[in-house]
Specification:
By secondary structure, the protein is α/β, with parallel strands linked by helices. It has nine helices and nine strands. It has a nine-stranded mixed sheet with strand order 3-2-4-5-1-6-7-8-9, sandwiched between helices. Helix 3 crosses helix 4 and helix 6 packs parallel to helix 7.
Length: 277
């Protein structure tokens, strides 16, 4: 996991951000410094890297959150990557869910105490809904003091209620996504946001949703570096397809699909060997 080259102490003519081309800080090769998900099959289409912004979508109930909890366990176990979560819909049972997915009672306390951090949505009563800035300010503490490298926000619709009344949803989402991308680059982390597709897709289905079907704005598709879709075929019991629908950077994956068996009792994802399209 490579870090962005630090900025020099002085800028040209004392103008912040102004360099000769020779002095301009450059990011290390993503292909060399990206880290895997712990599954060979998924690594063929998706890998993490510093400064990455990833969107995950899919029809409600298809396993987006459980899939990502599996990934957080994997990257902690295989690469010692620390994660920060804001998961208001699941925080009441996320510890037990992760314990089952981790599947090793002897080492789970180490994971839970040293590699996984949670910002609770339950605070003192406040009429103001939590917005993205509120979450990111708390994530900064996790990044700077606990060494977190992956930030998970699940789901986005817990934050969109904070939209100012005089701002359109498209403009609000666009501003928030630029804030997220700036956060990724400034604090050198990978951020993953779960965003639901439109109500029509959720209710009527009939096809696999795309990144352009996410509620609110085409900005979701335009701004993300990587986009994943989690899909369960009702005719294929306990099978999940993870689709890589967008890859901006060489070395961070490719467009395609990986397939998993999902244990209905534990929520543990197991890749179907070699099943990558």
């Amino acid at each position: 996991m490579g870090d962005i080259v630090p900025l020099p102490a002085a800028f040209r003519h004392d103008q912040p951000g102004y360099f000769t081309l020779a002095d301009l800080p450059q990011r290390p090769s993503i292909e060399e410094h990206a880290w895997g998900t712990g599954w060979w099959e998924l690594d063929q289409i998706f890998r993490f890297y510093i400064g990455q912004f990833t969107i995950v979508t899919g029809v409600a109930g298809h396993g987006k959150s459980t899939f990502l909890l599996n990934v957080l366990c994997n990257i902690a176990r295989k690469s010692s990557v620390k994660s920060f979560m804001y998961v208001p819909e699941n925080e009441g049972h996320v510890q037990n869910k992760l314990r089952v997915i981790w599947n090793d009672d002897a080492t789970f306390p180490s994971f839970a105490g040293k590699h996984c951090f949670v910002q609770s949505a339950v605070q003192e009563f406040d009429s103001r809904p939590h917005n993205l800035k509120w979450v990111l300010e708390r994530a900064i503490v996790a990044v700077e003091r606990d060494g977190v490298k992956v930030v998970l926000i699940d789901p986005w619709n817990e934050l969109d209620r904070a939209r100012p009344r005089d701002t359109t949803m498209t403009d609000y989402i666009g501003e928030c996504l630029m804030m997220l991308k700036d956060f990724c680059r400034t604090f050198q982390v990978a951020v993953v946001v779960v965003a639901h597709p439109t109500k029509a897709i959720n209710e009527h289905g009939g096809r696999i949703p795309g990144l352009a079907d996410i509620e609110g704005s085409m900005n979701w598709f335009n701004k993300c570096d990587n986009g994943l879709i989690v899909h369960r075929d009702p005719d294929k019991a306990n099978t999940c397809q993870v689709i890589s629908a967008k890859v901006r950077e060489h070395g961070a994956g490719k467009r395609g699909s990986a397939f998993f068996f999902v244990d209905p009792e534990t929520g543990i994802y197991t890749p179907q060997h070699g099943a990558v399209l």
